[in-house]
Structure formats: structure tokens, C-alpha cells
Amino acid sequence: MSVPADEPGNPAHAIFERFLRAGECREVLGCFVELCQQLGLQGSGLQLYHGLKAALNYWNAKALWSKLDKKAGHKDYDQGTACAGTKCLVVGAGPCGLRAAIELALLGARVVLLEKRDSFSRNNVLHLWPFTIHDLRALGAKKFYGRFCTGTLDHISIRQLQLILLKVALLLGVEVHINVRFEGLVPPTGKAGGWQAVLQPSSSPLTHYEFDVLISAGGGKFVPEGFKRKETRGKLAIGITTNFINRHSRAEVEVAEISGVARIYNQKFFQNLYNKTGIDLENIVYYKDDTHYFVMTAKKQSLLKKGVILQDKADIESLLSPDNVNWDALLSYAKEAANFSTNYCLPELEFALNHRDLPDVDMFDFTCMTRSENAALVWEHNGSRLLLGLVGDCLVEPFWPLGTGVARGFLAAFDAAWMVRRWAAGTPPLEVLAERESIYQRLSQTSPDNTNKNISQYSIDPATRYPNINLQAIKASQVKDLYLVGTVEVDHKRKSDNRLSTAPGDVYEELLSWCQASTAGYPGVAVSNFTTSWTSGLALCALIHHFRPDLVDLDSVDPQNAIRTHQMMLDIAEQELGIQPVLSSAEMATMAEPDRLGLITYLSQFYEVFRTSSEVEVSKKPLSPRGTRGAILFLSKLQKSRNLTHKRAQDSAQKDTEAKRSRRDTEPVRERTGENSDACYFCGCRVYILERASAEGRFFHRGCFQCRRCGATLRLGDYAFDEEEGHFYCSLHYPNPPSVDLPQDEASALPDGDADAAAHPPSEAGSPHVSPMERAPSPPQPTPAAPQPGEEPGEVEDTADAGDMEEQELLAQPGRDVREEEVPRAEPQGTAEEGEESGGRRKIILTPLEKLSLSTLNLTSEAEPEPPLKPARLRPQAAPEALPALGQGQGAWKQKEGKTDMEKGRWYKLECPDKQSSQSFQDVLYPHLAHEEPA
């Protein structure tokens, strides 16, 4: 029997008020147990919540009940029956674990939550997105913490957030157990049994609790069996957090917060800080909550100079190890930065204490960010299935400068609850996993700007939060590897064979063992480390040859020329496998201990590429163009229409390259003297592995890869390189190839338009030879000249292949890039003269899309060399009498294609038979003047 609590002076009222104001984890749990005992309530789940509502008829409680009732009445919860009968175990009482437990309780599931600690002591302050503020208010956060987001505040300490969520979870019937550590899973021993947990202490009554859903929120260092982690490493980043006691004095209230100041936006502030204190920071944030909370990113050189870090070490773990940090200097560093950033307005700064009763100051490395490859998986053993999901830091480790941790953690908690709802509804497991992975793809991209703006409509349904989300982006067939059958231990070993462990020592040993197994049996190869074993280049050759023997010819490898061998393997890996080099060939050939990490990083890429080679057959289908008919015609004619100038330039460049390579190959191996893969080729600054790109054996920042002449950003695979000068260019500004020289006496007398004609004089037979830019026969012209034998006046030679109608249709299509005049086409009436090519050259007109497609193809020609191309001329068509003045020893009129002209203009050149004089001029001929003689 419950005791009515609406009477004045009822002790339950006072207990409830103590429960609302409780500020410690143990105090909250004690007050709640006392309240249930006072009201005579037992049980868990929503049944307990409804009992509390009925028994505690108290005005302060009624306001809270109304908020929770409104929340529980959402259609997604089906009045608390959506997950009825589902048993869940949530590991971790952090903000994300508590938030997931609340949603599961609202769905009607039985929820047991484990926490290995018995206190909430994290004073660090979290930035809240608008939807998280709205969500917490809907749960009654103001009832538990009156100063929650008052005014413009958009942050809260982790400790206060945990207390709010813990109280809500208890009211909704979540069973919370503290001082219990989760150690692992116990599969069911029989068909009638269920999944259980290995717990410490083993005497806990929860060791016999059977569940079918496990939600892990144990933090970034705790990931259940079966999940794999991915690591992203960036620039060295050292963070410092510190908390000072907030006495809430008038002077402290008046100090303005710093929501986030980055060096790039306020350089003067950081420069003054450095000049006056010697403290060099990248950014700093200051929030006021229960404490004065500061978080900053410090530069390593500043920490070394101030004595915070005793010795500079390459390994970040050794650099920040306790024995390499001066604790007193760290406290002084943090306090000095806090004082300066607040203009020394915070009086009597005193460090708050953490759970170890030490000053709450921490220095940490966030150079490496980790995330899980998958958000969920299913285990089946003896016919019993277990759904596992991740939320919080063990799913995606947050990047604190962006303030995304709790916001994305809440989104992941909602996504996990939706997954459990689908699971309880009987949806096939593979469909549940596929949908969860589809949603997970969006999580790392979320921000307040790209989520739905109507935050009041947010629910566990992903469609209410993510705009235009495709819940079927990943198909069920793609997640079969996430459905595991068998015991935990057996499956974990099977899966771990194909992936590197996350422990640093395990990574080294596992990668080394893989390299040894892959290179075993190759002559001259004995891999025992990641330095000297790779200097000859033979080990890398053996590694690639083991998996792709089609790429490496071992007979062509020179074991005496390590640099050349390494360069050849680096090129193969980059071009054929898509593996970007991390070290240069010279660095690999003179491997030193500092390069060990770079080599491990490089070989890890081979591991990722080759680890599935036994399962997936590598496709070796030749590339084929996928252009339109015009593109196909272009390719069919390309080898026959190579420009002589370009060919000469290529031949010359090839000879120069071979000569330089031969000189380089004969040079002895020199020790590196400054320029290496750690320095950008362009700016000279250090370039880290994550931001490094390479081309032509040079390493650089991606942003520094620019054209030497115009400064345009270049793309890998779309650039020109001057090996002699060592400069990179875009395709427009690459130094011009060698041109065909003209005799000085002729070239000086010709205008620009005729220089090309003089460079290619007509053939002895007088046959027309179409220039490379000309791909269609020129129309008949009124230029009078003597006809050739066997021809009637007015006949024009057609250089097109008879019957090639498909190409003629292309020439007539509208919307093409036409570079010649569109004039009527004469019917072919003559035949090619002797000495003339039977297949004339014609212009293939391409659309811009076809040109773009063809620009990506490898069009290297192996055709035989051609004689120099000759300029276009038309054969004489009119009788000699048409030009009596010019036909009498003054020269003959020759027609040459001119440049663009609005009125169908032509360039005419008067060539004298004695070759002693030559003149050119332009005469504009209109269609109705086609048969007039030139003046």
C-alpha cells in the first residue's frame, strides 16, 4: 500500500525536495531509495513512474510529471509498449549512456545501467547545441538545476548534466547500479538461456541478469568485443584543461566569458600573451559554471620553454608521460594563461579539486581521434541473438574545439533507441543493422546548420532530425559481416586476423609479422625491423610482388641501386594501388630511426589494400573509352594526326629525362642534408603525414601545390613538371615545346598568319596536304589557275574517304565547337593524285563534354613517325584566262586557309616563281562576288 503524499507536512515532500537538490551521485540514489520506501513503491520501468505519479500528489512534483507525461506521450513510444519485453543493459553513466537509458525506458524496455564509479566529479564544461538545450528542458532540467542555460548561456558542466539525467532516469524506472564494472559477455550455454555479463565484483546480483540488447557508453577506451576502431591522426595538438573554484562573487559575475578565441581571428591577443608571459596558444575557451573552466591548445615549444615538458620526445605518449611533466610548472602555466585571458579580473584563483583530491588540471593529446567503423552488430549463439550498439565517445571521439561531443552523443543515443525499437518490432536483423549504418554515416557530418531547423519536432525517428536522409543508403547485403555467429572469443579472433589491433605494441608486432610472412622466401629479403630491413628496396619489391606479381618484374630490379628500386616501387604503388608515398626514395634507401614511424604508416596502407586480396579478385580489365561517337572517331584518327611539333618536343623531353635519370642513377647515395619528406617542397615548412601530398618524388602541403607562373592550385595527375628547373606548372603555362624553325629571310617577310605556311612548303607534285587543324575539305574557291590534266575546270579534289557518312553527319550537327567556316560541300569528282595520302585528314568536332572525357584518357601513340605536315592548298579550279595579268610571269595565286573572319574572308598569298619576292594581303570576298578577280 502506498502512502498518500498530498497531506501538509508529509515527509515524502521533503524527501522529494532533497532528491531534486541533491548534488552527488550517492546522495541522489539514497534520496530516491528513501522516497520509494516512504511511498511503499517497488519495481522498475514505467510501472514505477506511474506509481510515483499516483502516490506523490505534490505541487512541485506535478510540474515535473506534466513535462515527463508530454515526453512519454509521443507516438514513437506507443504509450510505453514499443519495446515491452525487451531487456537492455547500458554500460556507463555518462551523459550519453544516461540519455540512451532514458529513451529505452520511455519505449517500455527494462533497462539496467552499470557505472564503475560512485561519484560524478568531472567539472569540464560542455557546449550545448540548441536542440540539446530544448531536449533537456523537455525533461525538466530546470526543476533539477535552476541555473540551467539562463539568459544566453549555452553550456553546462558534465557533472551537473549527469546529475540531471540520473534523476530523470531514476524517475522513469531505470535500474542504476554503481561500483560495478563490466568485463565482458557470457554467451548462452543452452537454447533456453540468454546473454549475460561478466561483472566485477562477481558477487553482484546482476551476474545472472539476462538481456538481449547491450548499449555501450563506456568511453573511448572501452569498446566491446567485435567492434573495430579507425584512427585519424593530425597535427600535434596538446590540450590543457583547468577548473578554478567559482565563489559566485560580484567580481566573478562581471567577468565576461570567452566562447572560443582562435589565433587566426585574434592574432594581437595571442601575440601580447606570448610577449608578456611566454605562453604560446592556438586557442582558448573560458566558461563559467560551477567552476571557472578554461581549455586551451598550447604549442609544444612554449611548454618546453616554460619548463612544463622536461624533454622533447618524438613519441607523444612519452612526451606527455607523468615523468616528463613538471606538475608545478603546469599549474603555473594554466593559472597565468587564465589570468591574462580574463585581464586579471578573477580574484584569488584557486584550483578546484578532482576526484583524486588533486588540483583539477589536465594536459592531454588530441592529435589522434578515433571512431568505430560500425555503430552496431548482432551476435547469435545457440539460437539466442544479442544486439550491440555504441553511443558516446566509444562511437565517435569528439573534437573539443568544435563543441560537438554531447550534441552528437545525444543524436547517437536517439539513433540507438530507434534501432532497438526496430529490433523489438521484429525487423530482420540485417535490415536493422543496414539502417543503423546508413544513419551512422550522417553523424560525423552533423552541425546545427545541416540538421532540421524545427528542433521542437525532434524525436528518436531519424527523419525528424536529419533532412533528406536515406535510410537505405546501405543495403542488408553489405552488412552481413556485422552478423556474427558463434562464441564471442572465436569470432573476435577470426575478425582480428584481417585488421590491425588498436594497441600500439600490437600494431607493431602484427604489422611486422604480416610483412615477414608476405616476404618470406624471396632472395635477399629478411625483414626483422622497420628500418634497415627495407633500405635495399628488395623487401618492398617482394611485398608488392607477393600480392600483385603482374606489377613487379623481379629480374629488372637492380639490388645495387636502392634509390632507383625504391622510386620504381613508389611509382607503382601510387599509380597502380593508389598508395601515396610517405617518404622519398632517398629517405627509404638511407633509413634512419626517425623515419621508422613514416615507414610503418606507409606499410600500413599496403596492409589495408592487400588484406582482402585473397577474398576479392583484383580487376584487371583494360580501360575503354566511354565517349560518344565523336570521341570514338577522334580516337580512331588520333594516331594518324599527331602534330610533329609535339612529337619532337616529346622525343626531346624523353631524351633529356633519360639522360638525367642515367646521371641520377650513377650518383652515389648521399645522406640527406635538410630537404626531406618532413619539409614542404614549396614553402619549406614541416608537413605532417595527414596533410602531405607528393608528386615527382617531392612532398608538400596540398595547398602549396600551385602553378609556378599563375599560382593556380594544381591537382595530382593534372600538372606539368619541368625536371631541369624543378618547377610545377599548369597545362596552360608549361614552357612551350620547341617549334619548327623558319629560314630567317622568309620568316621575317611573312606576317603571323603565313609563318606556318612557309614552314611547310607545298610538295613537288603540288598535291594538297591538310594541316593538323584542318579536318574537313575546303570548299571550291573562285581562285583561277590552270587545271590539272584529266580534270575539267571547276573540279575540286575531295580528301574525305568516300562512304564515311557517320563522320560527315557529325560535322553537320548543331551545337558543335566549329573552328572552320561552314560552306557548301562539293561533290567529289576527282581522285587523289599520286603521292597523296589516300585517306585525307578531316576535322573531328567534339562537344565540351567529349573533350573533358578524352582529357582523362591515356592516348599515347606507338604509330610510326610521319613526315612533316604540309599546309593546306586547293588545287586550281578556273581557267588561266580568268587572271590574265597574274598568269603572265607575275606569279600564281595560291589560297590558304585564313583566320576567323565575319564575312567569309580568305588569306591570299602571291608566290613568285623565282622565290625572290613574296607578299601577302587580305581580300574580303562576299558570296555574290565569288567569281570576281582579285584587284
TrEMBL record:
One of the record's GO cellular component terms: midbody
Location(s), subcellular: Cytoplasm; Endosome membrane; Midbody
Region annotated Disordered, chain positions: 643-671, 739-843, 915-935
Stored PROSITE patterns: CH, LIM_DOMAIN_1, LIM_DOMAIN_2
UniProt xrefs under InterPro entries: CH_dom (IPR001715), CH_dom_sf (IPR036872), F-actin_Monoox_Mical (IPR050540), FAD-bd (IPR002938), FAD/NAD-bd_sf (IPR036188), Rossman_Mical (IPR057494), Znf_LIM (IPR001781)
Keywords linked to the UniProt accession: Actin-binding, Coiled coil, Cytoplasm, FAD, Flavoprotein, LIM domain, Metal-binding, Monooxygenase, NADP, Oxidoreductase, Zinc
Biased segments, Acidic residues type: 792-809
Stretches with biased composition (Basic and acidic residues): 648-671, 816-825
A Pfam family recorded for this sequence: LIM
Entry EC number(s): 1.14.13.225, 1.6.3.1
Catalytic activity: L-methionyl-[F-actin] + NADPH + O2 + H(+) = L-methionyl-(R)-S-oxide-[F-actin] + NADP(+) + H2O; NADPH + O2 + H(+) = H2O2 + NADP(+)
Predominant location: cytoplasm
Biased composition (Pro residues): 777-787
Feature: compositional bias, Low complexity: 747-762
GO molecular function list: actin binding; F-actin monooxygenase activity; FAD binding; metal ion binding; NAD(P)H oxidase H2O2-forming activity
Cofactor: FAD
Family classification: Belongs to the Mical family.
PANTHER family: [F-ACTIN]-MONOOXYGENASE MICAL1, CALPONIN HOMOLOGY DOMAIN-CONTAINING PROTEIN DDB_G0272472-RELATED
Protein name: Molecule interacting with CasL protein 1
Native species: Corvus moneduloides (New Caledonian crow)
Taxon lineage: Eukaryota, Metazoa, Chordata, Craniata, Vertebrata
